[in-house]
Amino acid sequence: MLIEVVAAAVVAGGATAAATGGPLVAARRRARRAGEDIREAYAARDAALAAEGAAQAEAGAARTEARTVRETVERETRHLLEARLPALLSHLRTPHVTVPGLLTPELAGTAVDRLHRALLDAVAEGVAAESERVDEAGRAVVRGAMSRVHSLQLRLQDGLSEIQRRHPDADPALMADVLALDMLNELIGRAAQTPALATGSTPMLFRDDTHLVDIAVSAASRVRDFKERVGEPVNHLTRSVGVMAQSVEPLRAVLAELLANAVHFSHGTLKVDVSLHETQTGASVIVEDAGVGLNAEQFARAERLLSGAHPVRLVELGDPPQTGWAAIGALVRQYGFQVSLKKSSYGGVAAVVSVPAALLVEMPEGHAPSVHAPAPVRTPEPAAPLPAGVRSVTRTAETGDPTALPRRRRKTRERGTGPVAPVAELPRLEPREAKARWGGWQAGRDKGREAVEAVERESAGATPHSTHEDTPSPQDPPHSRPSEDVRAAGSGNTPVPPTERAPHEGPRSTPRTAPAQQRGHDL
């Protein structure tokens, strides 16, 4: 019974399974596909999440890089404003200051670097143009002011000379005070002339060629206490070397500044040595002191200023401004002198002023140096006689001698054929005695000229072409009569006794004539 029941159940279960087997398999297949879809959806979600994470990471990296670049540019711009621009302004004032480069070397060649460089160049050009305008305006102010002061100084100089001429018999103590004022006036003139020359003004014009040794003596007289501080020039010249008229005052200004500088930086008991030499290319004047000397940096600065090859701004002259070397450099550039410095044998400074042969002349035989000029150390040997039939010439182009100087000869009227008495050497006189003699000679000369002029006016019809300016008066001592150009300049050019005014031996200097709207700006 039991077996039958079990068999029936098995048969019933098999029938039931056979009836339900198809739908179950389909359900299982659908379930399997749904699972796959779910897995794909999860995979897609994971991929999307991964992509989103990557995008966010990339965006974060981009934001970080942008922030880094911005910070770098800000730091570089701050460096430009705080370091590079101030250094550039300092470099424009003092070239030895260096301008730093980029703070971040990685920016070299980038747009930031190019823009910063363009900004620095624009600032430099703008500052340079404005500095040039301001400097030129300052130069014009200095030139105008110093020219007016120098003009007044020249008027005072003429007044003091007129006092000496009109009062030859005045009290010696009073005349000594007048000479002291004259010396002070010379210092004022140099103090006014030097800044004007350094700022582009032109020196005075001289009427005649002048002996080089006279220029050296006259330059020394423009220095304070020159009698005690400047030694007598040692004249090594073997010929009567002179300087052309247009270069007399520039050369004298150069020597005066060098002498003043040497005296200033030397001890009060030490003298400054001056010597004159002939060279293959012209002549030279050496100013040598035993002062404190110069270090390497000072030598470099002095050579730069004295060369005249570099423009000098007012701000480079210091405070208070030191215009001496700048003035020398300006004259060197304009007239062709050459000034070099070296260490002297005494431990100080030796300044060598070279004058080219183009500015030199050989003075006429009848035009001797002033009584203050030292005699040559070596007496020149007389030239050997020329062979018969050979004509003597003096020009370099004819002789072929590169060291020969052009000879200047004065055109004078024939003075007769009688023998000329030899001139004895004049003795050295005391200042008071010389002043008295010179004053008497001047008074007699003036009276004699007035008498000659009266006679000539009466006999003008008989000798219309004769004038007392062509023949020296019997009272005129040798080599002291002024030239025709100087006499034509007026009473202000009357010569002064040599013992009283060493700076003005020979022809007087006069300011350059300028148009009315520019007068006062030229020295």
TrEMBL record:
Gene Ontology MF terms: ATP binding
Domain of life: Bacteria
Biased composition (Basic and acidic residues): 427-436, 444-459, 478-487
Enzyme Commission (EC) number: 2.7.13.3
Matching InterPro entries: HATPase_C_sf, TCS_sensor_his_kinase
Swiss-Prot/TrEMBL catalytic activity: ATP + protein L-histidine = ADP + protein N-phospho-L-histidine
Keyword Nucleotide-binding recorded: yes
Region (Disordered): 369-523
Keywords assigned by UniProt, alphabetized: ATP-binding, Kinase, Nucleotide-binding, Phosphoprotein, Transferase
Protein name: histidine kinase
Organism of derivation: Streptomyces evansiae
